[in-house]
Amino acid sequence: DIQMTQSPASLSASLGETVTIECRASEDIYSNLAWYQQKPGNSPQLLIYDANSLADGVPSRFSGSGSGTQYSLKINSLQSEDVASYFCQQYNNYPWTFGGGTKLELK
Amino acid sequence: EVQLVESGGGLVQPGRSLKLSCVASGFTFSNYGMNWIRQAPGKGLEWVAYISSGSSYIYYAETVKGRFTISRDNAKNTLYLQMTSLRSEDTALYYCARGATVVPFDYWGQGVMVTVSS
What we know:
The complex is a heterodimer of chains A (about 110) and B (about 120). Chain A is mainly β.
């Protein structure tokens, strides 16, 4: 199975700040990497797919990058509505696996 | 608008069975692979099972293989998860989600809670 290691596990940032979340795969996943946002009490929503493509309706302050085994999610100009947990997920190989998640809070 | 609505959850004793359903609308259900994904309370996400659009390909996580069965009825736009020999570690919120090989989970339901406890 491909292991997805996500960091940090939690993050505290101020409004307007830029934050970055990292995700490392245990083997090359050829950019078959998605990022999901899960707000408290809600189901996950797709933010980024194919490592760097923005899903429909997602604000442009979100961006994804990376290749091979190393990927990152960047949020520019943090807004209050961005408080959530974020998960990376590889869909290159069965079984599809998720990172452990990053809980983003406001400072 | 794409909608996925799960049902069938509840409290069940260890070793018993439960069947979850997910009714889809807003897209051509028979054209898409579908999945079950679960989230234990306060924990991360775990993919559980996948079924291709025509049911030809079915995959399971090792943690549920041999106990859970995924199926679908394209005429009824409905996805199922038959869960048997339930264990306490199966306690989780179960989501159905659209997605397949080299395709992310682009739509999720609101989830249905399954609690396994005596």
